[in-house]
Every structure is written in structure tokens, then in C-alpha cells.
Design brief:
The chain is α+β, with helices and mostly antiparallel strands. It has a single domain, classed as Nitrilase/N-carbamoyl-D-aminoacid amidohydrolase (4-Layer Sandwich). Helices cover about 20% and strands about 25% of the residues. The chain is built from 5 helices and 14 strands. A 6-stranded mixed beta sheet has the order 5-6-7-8-11-12, covered by helices on one side. A 4-stranded mixed beta sheet has the order 1-2-3-4. Strands 9-10 form a two-stranded antiparallel ribbon. Helix 1 packs parallel to helix 3. About 45% of the residues are buried.
């Protein structure tokens, strides 16, 4: 999806239109990019603030109504306002009067675009129980931190959803990183990136859907807007014991963990660098 910076109403109409189109083709879950409602390349917080919305704002209302109309669920990136804080967030909306089921606030913020000025996510990772399976959400740069995907897996995620804004320099993430995240956690992954150019920044498309083995089952191109469809066996994410040769070659990436050796991961950064 292409996005027009600062044109929330235009972007909202585009989201609702694409949601209807995908649902008409049988989609149960429709995923949109990071900051799909607002754009990303703001030069200050003050510039972005007029386009931020609360989780029960006009966009959430319109998207939830479209979900009820189509019977599909939707994940849409936006800038969330709560009090004096502004977050890079993704809302989850559902049909049948469910409205906005929840949201996720991006935990890891790069020094890039509007993330330079936003508040880091302040809530623990969460998995949502949806009619078709259990899904967790990360946003863009979160995928660079293996702990984020692992946390969602340990919480029971069968699918990790990644709204993202990959510019040209981020090509390694769709090329290598997401497939590794899927394989190392035995979890399905679905990433929705934007396309087009915003204030000189080119976005590379390449949305991907990856199965629990780390194999790409669908991938978009860089050419322009397109809707990527795939069927995923979410239940397979619960079959964590992989038997390659019975009694001779078996692995379980959850049962084989040794958490007592990982404590350094949760040590505060200032304490883990060692003495000068």
C-alpha cells in the first residue's frame, strides 16, 4: 500500500477500500503497513501531532465498521495519542460488533522518521485470541530484536504480524531476518510493508508470509501496490517437536531451551557492558 503523509482521511478511505477488496476474495485477516493512516517521514513531533488519534478515534470507528461489514479482521498502523504521549501503534479491529479488539505500541524505536520523536511502547507483549488462531503483533524495527518474536512465541502466538515501513536500506530484513525469526521460533510470520516514495524515502514493498519452517509461501514485489494472499496452517505452530528421523534426529525449540543461561539478556544495558 502507498501512503500519503498527513492525509489521514485519504489514507483511511484507501484502507477501507483495500479491506473490502481483500475480504471479498476471502481474507479473514487483512494487514496494513506501519503508520498506514498517517505517513512516517515527519520532521518533528509537532508536525505529526495533528494526525495522531486515540484508539477510539474516527479511524478506529471507520475501520471497525468496515470489519463488521466484511466479516474480516484488520491490523492498521497509526500514530496513537494517549494523554501527552504519542506512540507508533497498530490497531486490531474485528467484525460482528467486536470493534477495536486491542492495539500494540512499538517497543523498539530507531532514530528514523517519526520514531525519533515518539514515546517507546509501554505495555508488555500480548497475544490475541482470534476466531482463526492466536496472533501477536510487532512493528518494523521490533523484528531486529529476536527477544520480541520469542516473547510472543512463549505467550502462545501461532502467527506474528509485522506492519512495517522498510526503506531501501532495510532490504536484509525481508531477505533474511524474518525467515530466521519464523524458523527459530516455529511460528508463522506475516509482514506488510508499504511501497512508493515519501519525502525522498523510497519504500521497498516485499511484504512476506512465512510458514513455521521459515519457508516463504508468498511475497510481494517492489513494483507497486498489490494484495498478497496466502493460506496458513496456524495449528502447525503448536507442533513444536520436529521429528526429522524418529529416535535419531528430533528437535524442539521450546523444550530444548536453557533459560538459566540467558539471564544476561534481561540485564539492564548499562550493567551488561562490563567494567571500563
Amino acid at each position: 500500500m502507498d501512503v500519503s503523509i498527513g492525509e489521514v482521511e485519504k489514507n483511511r478511505r484507501r484502507v477501507v477500500d483495500r479491506l473490502r477488496t481483500a475480504a471479498e476474495s476471502g481474507a479473514d485477516l487483512v494487514i496494513f503497513p506501519e503508520c498506514a493512516l498517517t505517513g512516517y517521514c515527519f520532521e518533528s513531533l509537532e508536525e505529526a501531532v495533528p494526525y495522531a488519534e486515540s484508539i477510539d478515534g474516527a479511524s478506529a470507528t471507520a475501520i471497525a465498521a468496515a470489519c463488521s461489514e466484511t466479516g474480516a479482521h484488520a491490523i492498521v498502523g497509526f500514530i496513537e495519542k494517549e494523554g501527552s504521549n504519542y506512540y507508533n501503534a497498530a490497531m486490531l479491529a474485528g467484525p460482528c460488533g467486536a470493534g477495536v479488539i486491542g492495539n500494540y505500541r512499538k517497543v523498539h524505536l530507531p532514530f528514523l522518521g517519526v520514531d525519533r520523536f515518539l514515546t517507546p511502547g509501554n505495555e508488555q507483549f500480548r497475544v490475541f485470541d482470534l476466531p482463526f488462531g492466536r496472533a501477536g503483533i510487532n512493528i518494523c524495527y521490533d523484528a531486529s530484536f529476536p527477544e520480541a518474536a520469542r516473547a510472543l512465541k512463549l505467550l502462545g502466538a501461532e502467527l506474528i504480524i509485522l506492519p512495517t515501513n522498510w526503506p531501501t536500506g532495510a532490504w536484509r530484513t525481508p531477505e533474511f531476518v524474518l525467515n530466521a525469526r519464523s524458523c527459530e521460533n516455529h511460528v508463522n510470520f506475516a509482514a506488510a510493508n508499504r511501497c512508493g516514495v515519501e519525502r525522498g524515502w523510497e519504500f521497498i514493498g516485499r511484504s512476506k508470509i512465512i510458514d513455521v519452517n521459515g519457508d516463504t509461501i508468498a511475497e510481494a514485489t517492489r513494483a507497486g501496490e498489490e494484495i498478497l494472499f496466502a493460506e496458513i496452517d496456524l495449528q502447525e505452530a503448536n507442533n513444536n517437536k520436529i521429528v526429522n528421523v524418529a529416535g535419531a534426529y528430533e528437535i524442539d525449540r521450546l523444550a530444548d531451551r536453557r533459560p538459566e543461561f540467558y539471564r544476561i539478556i534481561t540485564t539492564e544495558a548499562s550493567q551488561s557492558r562490563g567494567a571500563d
